[in-house]
Specification:
The chain has 3 helices and 3 strands; from the N terminus they run E-H-H-E-E-H. By secondary structure, the chain is α+β, with helices and mostly antiparallel strands. The chain has a domain of about 35 residues. A 3-stranded mixed β-sheet has the order 1-2-3. The longest helix is centred in the N-terminal third of the chain and has 9 residues. The protein starts with a strand and ends with a helix.
Length: about 80
């Protein structure tokens, strides 16, 4: 992705806006450090961060969840069938 310094971006703002409108994203930097990213308005939104608890209230965890299959697992370790 191309980067432009602030002075260059101010000088060529119309040209850069046209590029962005055509789908070409770019960065504007200050003293070599990227400050902002310019993207076209019709570009897809960035994916939301995944978060814990997004299924809260939509599923039910059984009360014996922590012990499900414990007997079968113990039999496998003990070699009993």
């Amino acid at each position: 992705m191309r980067s432009y310094n602030i002075h260059e971006a101010k000088t060529h703002l119309s040209r850069l806006v046209e590029k962005a409108a055509k789908g070409e994203s770019f960065l504007i930097a200050k003293a070599g450090k990227p400050m902002v990213k310019v993207i076209p308005l019709d570009s897809p939104e960035p994916a939301q961060k995944k978060r814990f608890g997004f299924m809260a209230g939509k599923i039910k965890v059984p009360d014996d969840f922590n012990t499900l299959g414990a007997r079968e697992i113990q039999k496998l370790f003990e070699g009993k069938e």
